[in-house]
Write a structure and sequence with these properties.
Order of helices and strands: EEEHHEHEHEEHEHEE
Radius of gyration: 17 Å
Number of helices: 6
Largest sheet: 7 strands, mixed
Helix content: 10-25%
Number of strands: 10
Shape: globular
Strand content: 25-35%
Distance between the termini: 46 Å
Length: 238
Amino acid sequence: MPPQVVPSDLGYQTKQENFAVDGVAHLIIRSLLDKQQFHDPLGLALHLGISSAIWPLFGLLWPSGSRLAERMALRPVNPLERILEIGCGLALSSLVAHRRGANMTASDCHPEAASFLLENLRLNGLAPMHYRHGQWGEQPAIQNSDIALTGRFDLIVGSDILYERDERGTLAHFIDLHAAPAAEVWVVDPNRGNRAHFNRNMAELGFALHEDLLDRVAAKGLDGHPAYKGRMLTYTRA
């Protein structure tokens, strides 16, 4: 079924579609119509360092996010385990885990991420889920400090978050700040080429690395999945 374009008076266009994740029932996902959308009349995104060029990226479904969601669909649920998704965007992995009963917190720095998450929870008849503002690097003040990310988590997950070289280890230190003393970190990376610095920074913080190649061909048919090449990076600190 083709996506349904949803009229909006919010200054940008959206679409709504059924999205399949292997291992769980289909989800209804509201996303931005395309990469051309932009709406920041008060300059909230710009204040957080989000330019007009990258503004729409949070609101699109990305292949690495789908691969992470598939892994979350297979993970045994422990309601006592605290899980955090960083750079969540549309929070597909968080929605999958939340639907299965996991204790999930989604986080992003984009000012619209929370509203899209709220709408997608509503569309799927899901209970409220924790959301926090999480931003690594320089962190400008946010309007509502009550939603700032705090606390430590047993599992931290993220997809396609190694988009910068990050020689200073900003992302690794952000993860360390929110990781429990004994924690696991999952990162799905579409072979962007910035793994070496991140691996080194994580190792300095006591995390051991295990890599799995993600390499699959496209499946035929209307519900077939696209081809994907990347890596599942699993960091463990015991």
